[in-house]
Structures are given as C-alpha cells and as structure tokens.
Amino acid sequence: MNKLKIIIFFIIFTILHSKGYAINIEINSEKNKVNVGETFNLNINIEGDLSEDNKLKKISGIENFNIISKSQSQQSSSKLVIINGKQKRKSKNIYSIMYSLQAIKEGVFTIGPIEINNSGTKISSLPLKIEVFGEKNIEEKINIKTEKNKDDFIYKQKKIIKNIIIVSFIIALLIGIYFYFKNKGKINKIKSLLKKEEKKEVIKNPNPKKTNYPKIEEKDFIYKLEKIFKNKLENKYKIKNVKNKTYIDILSEIENIDSHNKEKIETLSDLFNKAKYSKIRVNKDKLLKLVKEIK
C-alpha cells in the first residue's frame, strides 16, 4: 500500500513539473486607450524552450502603429525536477520583446493573437485591443484648459479696470473742484491744452495697418500664419531675429510674461510643430483664432 502511494506521488510530481515548462505566450500593454500621436509600450513574453524555426517572426496588427523602437532580451534559469524517479536539471527560457509604438490613426485595433508552431502544436496568445481616439479629444483638453485660463484672466482684468476707474474718477473729481474754485479761466485753458495733446497723440500714433491673415484653404497657410505669429512676438516682446529662433529660445528671452500668455504661446508653438513635423492633423480654425488673440 505504501509503495503504491509513493508511485502515485512520483507520477503526480513528475506531471506537475513537466507542465511547468510548457510554452506560454503573453502580450500586454501599459495603455489600452490612447490618443492619436501618443506613444505606449507593447510587451511580449514567451516562456519555454523555442527552436530557431519557432522564434517570433511577425505580429499581426502592429502595422497599424508607428514603431518608434524595439528591444529584446532573453533570460534563462534552471532547477532540479524529478522525472521517472530520477533528479534532473531542467532549464527554462523567457524571451521578452518590447515595442515602443505611436498611434497614427483613429479606431479600434487588434494586435495578435501571436501564434507559434512548436513541434506540430500551435500555441497562441490572447489578442490585445487598443482603442485610439482622434484629434478632437486632444483639442478638447486644450480648449478646456485655454478657456479656464481665459476666464481667470478676464476676471482679473475686469477687477483691475474697475479699481482704476474708481480711483481715476475720485482724482478727476478732486482736481475739478480745486481748479473750479481757484480759477475758472484756467480750466478752459487746460481743456484746450488737453485737446491739443490728444491731437498730437493721434498724429504720433496713427492706427496700425490691419494684419492680412492667410485663408485656411491656401497651400502655405501654416507657413504664412507662423510668420505672422513670430512677427507679433517680435513686436510685442522686442525680440531680435525671431524668425531664426526656436520657440524654446523665444520663451527664454521674454521677460515678465504672465502665465496666461506664456501658456498660449506654448500651445501655439506645439500646434505649429505638429502641423509641420508630424502626420497629425491640426485644426486650422483653432490655430488661426489663437494667433489672432495675440495682440
């Protein structure tokens, strides 16, 4: 009876250990939902002994993404197992591949399943679904952030203007009372002098020419609009040779810039770079509106 128990124990032990080294394929990602232009990592782990003919050669569905980089590694380990009542050293290999991918178009894409033919047996992983959202989602985030900052800025500006108006009114009232009682004639002279000064200011500072913004359907719309944007930065912040400088250099030269304008310039620079150097579609109406807001 005891011998029978020992035999059954060795059989179960051998089966469990031999199964522990079967080939197993796993595919996973840190993100299952991304935006167009966003990067994410795709990890593939193959555990078990593979021959050269069975190594992973193609991954279905990966062609829907831009491959930024690829790295691979292999780890080996071993341990003692009991096979047919004898101790043997059994080794196992873990073959890992990591892809850095970039989403290039909107939709729901399936990567895998990954299949390997091992000694006539087909082994496969579960498929992995990646949902890619369009450019609207990115723009909505920018719009929410921009609108919030815009509301805060407008509130602060209104408060400052209100205080200036009150203080100016009090000063003007006191000056008026003082001059009225001192000499009415002098008040008339001051009025005439003020009118002359206003005329001089109008002559010195004539209305600037209106900016001719390019039409959205123009072929070189992005180039022309960026030129206008950089000219505005040059005139507003007195930056020399702005057309030959990067946006990082431009921002570093701007002194005493408030957070609202800085964020707006950073948003515009990011949109211009996407329009020029990537395949991402930029909302031209949105871009034109933001440039017009730079006074």
CATH class of the largest domain: Mainly Beta
CATH architecture of the largest domain: Sandwich
Over the alpha carbons, how many angstroms does the gyration radius reach?
36 Å
- The secondary-structure class comes to alpha+beta
The fraction of residues in strands falls at: 25-35%
Element pattern in H and E = HEEEEEEEEEHHHHHH
* Assembly of the depicted chains: single chain
Instruction: Please give the share of residues in helix.
Output: 40-55%
Neighbour order of strands in the largest sheet = 1-3-5-4
CATH topology of the largest domain: Immunoglobulin-like
Give the overall shape. elongated
Task: Sum this structure up briefly.
The protein is an alpha+beta fold and 295 residues long. Helices cover 47% and strands 25% of the residues.
For this entry, give a set of tags.
four-stranded antiparallel β-sheet; single chain; alpha+beta; 9 strands; Immunoglobulin-like; 7 helices; three-stranded mixed β-sheet; elongated; 3 domains; 295 residues
What does this structure look like?
The protein is of the alpha+beta class and 295 residues long. The protein folds into three domains: 2-133, Immunoglobulin-like, CATH 2.60.40; 134-207, no CATH class; 209-295, no CATH class. Helices cover 47% and strands 25% of the residues. The protein has seven helices and nine strands. The longest helix is centred in the middle third of the chain and has 48 residues, at 135-182.
